[in-house]
Amino acid sequence: MIINTELENKGNLFPSKIIDFKKDVDKLYFTADNDVILELTVVRDSLLRFRYTTVGNFKNDFSYAITKYASIGYNKLEIEEKENTYEIITSKLRCEISKSDMKISIYDAIDDVLISQDERGFHWEESYEHGGNVVKMSKVSRDGESYYGLGDKPNHLNLKGKRYSNWVSDSYAFGKDTDPIYKAIPFYTGLHQGKAYGVFFDNTFESSFDFAHERRNVTSFWAQGGEMNYYFFYGPKMNDVVESYTDLTGKPHHLPPLWALGFHQCKWSYYPESKVKEITSTFRKLQIPCDAIYLDIDYMEGFRCFTWNKSYFPDPKRMVKELLDDGFKTVAIIDPGIKIDKTYSVFQEALENDYFCKRADGDYMKGKVWPGECYFPDFTNPEVRDWWSGLFQELIEDIGIKGVWNDMNEPAVMEVPNKTFPDDVRHDYDGNPCSHRKAHNIYGMQMARATYQGLKRYSFPKRPFVITRSAYSGTQRYTSTWTGDNVATWEHLWIANIQAQRMAMSGFSFAGSDIGGFAGQPQGELFARWVQLGTFHPFFRVHSSGDHGDQEPWAFDEDVTNIVRKFIEIRYQLLPYLYTAFWNYVDHGTPLLKSLVLYDQDDVQTHYRTDEFIFGEQILACPILEPNAKGRRMYLPKGKWYDYWTDTVVKGGREMWVDADIDSMPIYVKAGAIIPKYPIQQYVGEKEITEITLDVYYKKGKESSELYSDANDGFDYTKGRYSLRNFSLSGKSKQLIINQHKEGKFDATFQKFNIQFHGLPFEISEIYLDNEKMEIEPFDSEKGQSIRICKNFSQLHIKGKEVIK
Ligand code: GLC
User: How far is Cα 264 from Cα 752, in angstroms, rounded to an integer?
Assistant: First the structure.
């Protein structure tokens, strides 16, 4: 019997009183007299790990989620034994462990406010079906507490009152209430009284989370096997919690090539070659920027991975090169199912080397996918991953494919009731052999990892680009992702917005949806609104299934084409801004999208908002999610904001109506921001960038902004060949000063900044560059006064004449 509820079963067992305590450097062991041991690790001052066993000893400690690069070490660790408790004190946290029942309470070490408290705490139930334990944890949920995160759940951003489970599943045309879907990211952030904390339940078995759903004052989580093993992060800022979780489970190993942040066009499927060329040449003819074109399963011979259908694609190498000459990078799909075919070399090699997954009784795991009956490599075996990565040599090194798209890696199996492997399938699990119950949620992650290794090997010195459908915590280290087979409906546009934000606050920012919807066909209006939203998603790809008509930017009417072009152009202009934000994500784990609650958790108005979000650090976007809309009501966070289209300055901290006809959407820029922009290009690298525009949004007061640049591809940046410019702006009524601080050894191709002032309340009379008066004539640009200056200034000082009325 699968236990669906934390309460349902009466057979719960609990730790008894603590009879022993031992310390081993950063690990503390508390032993109860019924063989329960709590291993508490002080990872950092604000990060504690709690791990329990019920049998008196721990199994090998192994996790796919935790990166070896995670930062560890604390400034303070004091342990005190009191009459009824043990107290563990770091510089950030005070943790109390009750001697009588092992319950945990965690306090802010500075103001001693309670952050989190066990309700029943750790408990478990014997699972007769599996001969192991269902491990459970319950914590007190306080009035006014909110919950966020958990990966790709397609429902309201705030998880309070809901229950979810994690078991990665192929979910064609999923709905708002479908659960689980493709990803398993058992991490959430709780927020109460202005303090945020995070919980990461690193257990790959099917797990469940209940956020005050079953019992109003209890939040619980449990798994169908494995250990109760969770990490507790303390903020108190939500952004710090997300960064800390991302540090532990891994930031992306490197920046994506800049082209991967451009626009991607995909369909199931573009074939033959003439169709692919027709699509790409139409982009160029209509001057709609695009960087990537996708080949779905029909490029293969009988859906055999690493083969080509030579009647559709007679000379893939030539085609890929011709596409590249026109600026298109080709991305190809690769699935895990390997067709059972003795004449097929990939099958033969895997069979000979014993790389396929087997059932408990020794037979191969056989299942139907696109090619018919298949066997499946065991990606949890490092030798198999190594072999798999080698299979990419021809595709990448010889043919010139630039990115690989991993699909069906839940793994999806057709025509069986559970749509995946049966539980008894065996896995190596990197030398910790186990059944599919434990390996299911990480199978897709390990496939994407092996693919990433292949791309890294054969694309070098260029950066690899991988996309995956299935993911567990930590998958963000290797790959980008999309949200799977959605539907062309307005509700799905709402879902796409939530999923991208939720993924970002679950450490996985490089995500996007199938723009326009995978199943069904959108009307032009929905398509246009979806491209508008996608403009502000880190992964920006149109994709749709073959059977529902066309979904290219020109498949609707001319107005739609023009709107789509306009927004894709905005994306291309914002590339240096997005790239800078991406650098912050790779360097610090800073989420690329910030839901309003993450941006300003102290404003309770933000706790239940779902639609508005911050793109990067300083741009606020809010999609239009309904048909026939001429605008919408939205909430602007506190502070002053410039309307992106009109430069009107509005005061935030309130909800307001914003006009946004079909060719527009609500976009605001934070006052004081300096937004770097590229000229419009049809693809990354089309033009040599000689000048970057800096849109300077005047503010009375101070604000700082950044611009990161490097070669836009390759790994030289890891050796210091990048440049990071910090701009600090300081505005007064008749002057504006911008100080620039630069670090890094990279000398970008651009030589000049075209500085465009927005909202300057005075007419420029004098300009000083590094304390020297310059004879520069300001000129009028679209939105105000502009000047053109050399990029390497330290200080720009503008003085004003009279106030412009
Ligand atoms: C799955 C994928 C979809 C892809 C299709 C064919 O449904 O989610 O994106 O187009 O398979 O490969």
Answer: 30
647 with 735, same domain: the answer is: no
Mutating to test ligand 1, I would choose from 485, 541, 542, 543 the residue with most ligand atoms within 8 A of its C-beta, which is 485
Domain final residue, candidates 616, 638, 670: 670
Given the residues 410, 552, 569, 600, select the one marked as catalytic: 410
Joined together, the tokens standing for residue 31 give 């032993």
714 contacts 721 by C-beta, under 8 angstroms: no
Q: Give this prediction's pTM.
A: 0.97
**Separation between Cα atoms, residue 42 and residue 48, nearest integer Å:** 5
**Domain boundary pick from 636, 670, 704:** 670
* Cross-strand bridge partners of residue 233: 47, 198
Does residue 220 sit within a domain?
yes
The pLDDT value given to residue 2: 43
**Confidence band, pLDDT 50/70/90 cuts, at residue 3:** very low
* Same domain (yes/no): 83, 188: yes
Please check whether residue 692 lies inside any domain of the structure: yes
Q: Give the number of domains in the chain.
A: 3
Q: Are residues 22 and 121 in the same domain?
A: yes
Residues 113 and 180 reside in one and the same domain: yes
Q: Which helix (H) or strand (E) holds 680?
A: none
Q: Are 283 and 509 in contact (CB under 8 A)?
A: no
Q: What whole-number distance in Å separates Cα of residue 393 and Cα of residue 306?
A: 10
| Residue 612 and residue 666 in one domain | yes
Among 295, 368, 408, 539, which residue has the most ligand 1 atoms within 8 Å of its CB, making it the best to mutate? 408
DSSP 107-130: EETTT--EEEEEEEEEEEEEETTT
Check which CATH number belongs to the domain holding 651 and give it.
2.60.40.1180
CA-wise closest residue to 678 among 753, 586, 618, 779: 753
407 C-beta closer than 6 A to ligand 1: yes
- Does residue 494 fall inside a structural domain? no
CA dist., res. 258 & res. 264, Å (int): 12
Q: Using one digit for the tens of pLDDT, what is the confidence trace for 430-474?
A: 999 999 999 999 999 999 999 999 999 999 999 999 999 999 999
